[in-house]
Amino acid sequence: MGRKRKIAHPAPTKMQAPQGTLQAPQATLQAPQATLQAPQSTLQAPQSTLQAPQSILQAPQATLQAPQATLQAPQATLQAPTLPSNSHSHHSRPKNTIDRRLVAARITLEAVLNDSSTQDVLATYGYSRAELLRGQALREQAQALELQLGARNAEQITARHTRNNAHLQAHTIYMRHLRITRVALHREPALAETLDLGERKRPITSWVGQARRFYSNVLADSAILEKLDARGITLTALQAAQAQVEAVEELFVEHTHCQRIARTTSSERVAALRALNAWMSEFKQIARVALADQPLTRERLGI
Question: What share of the chain is helix, strand, coil (3-state, %, to 5)?
């Protein structure tokens, strides 16, 4: 009986230990639940990270606007050379055309006049040696007038520059005297009225008239001379200025004369060129027919 009590007692105490052991895994299983919540917060970070490239992509839009303003500069730069190049070709082209025609006419006429056999053929078509010499005289006249026109144009350009320089110098002194006179006579309206101290006229002929009246009236009035002398304008200075005004008028007349001669020479040259062109045009047409079987001769004559 004593042995049966020893076996029955220990059995219930051994069964209680596993119950405490089974409770531990329950607490362990709860930890992963908390652990699984961490990735949820971690996944939110990339969402905020993806927003940054959106602001970065906006920067190139503002940067691309700068080249648009930079491309405008060449447009203004390309406009500058337009006018000078066109004006140069406009003036040089007619001159080159006239020179070429004169040289071509000389080559043709000299070749014919130096070839007696060609002259014999052309004589039967109305172009005798006398007629050929008339054509040569037309060419020489046109050439001479072309050279004269160049000289006349150079003369009138020189006269214009000389006149402009003299006008500028005289005007500078005249305006200095005029301003001082206005101040000196601002309380003398009667005296000021005789000098025409109002607005200056721009055309050179009107300018000469006003300046001449000013100095003539000033030099003829002792009261005005006295007031101007007190302001530093002496009688000698006034007389010298008056002489400069007269010189400007003389230079203006000379320049006008040069202009008229150049226009006359230009008209004469135009008439001579027209006469030469008409003669050469008819001559070439007849010569092509007369020398139809002589291609080498036509080539030598330039027809």
Answer: 85, 0, 15
